[in-house]
Design goal:
This protein is α+β, with helices and mostly antiparallel strands and 135 residues long. Helices cover 28% and strands 24% of the residues.
Length: 135
Amino acid sequence: MSKWQDPAPLPAAWQRLDDGILSLWWDRLCAQTSHESAALYAAGLFTEDRRRPIAQWYNPALNAAMLVAPETSPEWPVQRFGIFYAPPGAGFERVHSTAHEWHPRSPRQSPTEDEAFHAAIAEAERFLQVEMSFV
């Protein structure tokens, strides 16, 4: 990749927090839908003990967050990482992007889970860089 195409670093206000999914996600989704709908959203992403990996950024000054996490049920033949955004203050959005998928039955065939995960992270970081231009 040439120097002019290198992604800009994320603004310092965004902290990477990958230990566990922030409660902010559940709160925002419940405020936008119902508890029942929130529990079913993205194959139970926010209610079940989720598979790893996840990548998560939080901006405490804006009360905003970004999440990359598996969003498909474990039994599906194609797995996918979803990108989710909680904008400043309130709300919840699924970021529509390239499909970051992998096939668990072919773990060594590209794209692998690791390749899909890192591609989703790169896309989430690009989204945050653009979003910060408007906030």
